[in-house]
Amino acid sequence: MLTMKSTPVALTAKRFPFARLLFWGVSLLVIILREPRFFTLPRFWAEEGTLHFAAAFSLPWYQTLFLPQFGYLNFWPNLAAILANLAPLEQAPLVTTLMALAAQMTPIILILWSRSPIWKGWLFRLAGVAVYLFAALTWETWLNTTCSYTIFGLITFLILLEETPSGAARRWIYRALLLLAGLTGTLSCFLTPFFAARAFFEKDKQRWLQTAILALCTLAHMVIIFSYRDQGNIGDRFNFIGFATLGATLAAQTFALLAAGLDQASAWGNQLYALTSQNPDQFQLLGRLFLAGEAVLLLLFSFNLPRMQRFLFLGSFATLLVLPVMFSAIPDKYSFMKTGFHQRTFMPPNVLMGWMLLFGLRLTRPQKSSTGAGSLARWACALALAAALFWGIQAYPRSWGGNAVWPDWKAEVETWRADPAYALRIQPEGWVIQLKTPEK
Fold first, then answer.
1. What is the pLDDT of residues 361-375, one digit of tens each?
2. Which helix (H) or strand (E) holds 315?
3. How many CB atoms lie within 10 A of CB 16?
4. Which of 290, 321, 395, 311 is nearest to 359 (CA)?
5. Rounded to an integer, what distance in angstroms lies between the CA atom of residue 112 and that of residue 118?
6. What is the pTM of this model?
7. Which member of 56, 293, 338, 351 lies 3.0 to 4.6 Å from 85 by CB, making a disulfide possible if both were Cys?
8. Coil, strand or helix at 281
9. pLDDT digits (tens, 9 = 90+) for 86-114
C-alpha cells in the first residue's frame, strides 16, 4: 500500500533521457524564485560581509583563503569573498550569492545523478530532493555562504550514505567535496567517526581514504582551535546541554514542526522557554519526558531500515543535532528551543530526519515490514513525511524577519566612495562592513 514502486517512473527516464536535467532545472527555479531579489538586489549576509569579504578586500588573497574566523576555518566563504573581490565592488554580493547557489545545488545533483541503489527510482529521487528543499526551515541558510557549511554537512552525509563509487572520476569528485566540506566549518568533521565505522565493517579501502580526508580536516580545525584557545569566545563554545533542554529543544525545533507547523510550534517553543524560569522543576520533568518519547519515535521511524542505514541515520542525526548546540557560542542554551530561531543549527538534522522518513517507506526489509511493528513504522513514516512536506511547503514562501528587507548595496557603495569612513549596511539589520584600504 505504501510501497514506492520505481518501475513506471524509471521508464519515463528511458523515454526522456534529459529527465535529470529537467528536474535539476526545476529545482534551480524553485530555489531562485523563492526570493529573486537575492539576484536582482544582491546582498551580503552577516559574517559573509563583515568578516569574509572585509578580509578579502583588505588582505592579499593568499592570506584570506585559509584565514580562520572565530577560531575555526570556513573555507567556502573565504573563497567566495576572494572571487567577489575580483568583481566590481557593486557586484560583489552577487558573486557570493552565486557561490552559495553552487553549494546549495550540489545535494540535488548528488541525488539526481546518484548511481547508488539506495536512490533507485525517479519518484524516490524527487522525493529526496523535495525533502531537502522543503522539510526544514531554511531562510537563514538560504543563498548565503555564511551558512554554506550546513549544506556541506548534508553533502558529507549523502556521500556517507552511498556505497563508494567504482568510477575514478566520481571517486575524485567525492574526495574533493569531502575536502571542501571538511575545511568549511566543523559540521562535516563531526561525521568522521561514521565514515571510519563504515570503512571498518565493510573493509573498504575507498571509504578509508574518505575517512582520512575528513580526519585530516578535523586535525586542522583542532590545531586552529588550540591556537585560538585564549582569544575571543573560544572557551565559551564548550558547554554541555542537559537532557531536559535537549528534549525540549528537539520537541520545539523538530517534532512540533512535524505535528503542527511553524506558527503553533513557535507558540509551544516560547511556552517551553518561559517555563525554564517560571517553573524549572516542571520544565526538567517535561523535557525528560519529551526526550524519552522522541527516542521511541526515532526508533520507530528507523525500524524498517537495514542495520547500517539505521546506524548512520540515527547516529548522524544525533551528532548533527547535539554537537553544534553544545559548541555554539550562544550562551543561553534554552534559547535554542525557540522555534524558527537558529535555523542554521537545525536545518541539517531536520533534513536528515526527512530522508530517514523517506527511506523508512521502502521495502528494504520485507521480513520486518510485513510484521505489525513494520507496518506501523511505515505508516508512521508516511504520516510524518507527509506532514513535514505539507508544513514545509506552506512555510516556504513566507518571509523571515531577518530576510524581509535589506539595503541597496549599490547605493551603499556609492555612499562609501564619497566617504570611505562610512560603514556599509548589509543584511540582517544592524550588520555593517567597515572596508579598509587594501594592503599593498
1. 976 555 555 568 888
2. helix 307-326
3. 11
4. 311
5. 12
6. 0.92
7. 56
8. helix
9. 999 999 999 999 999 999 999 999 999 99
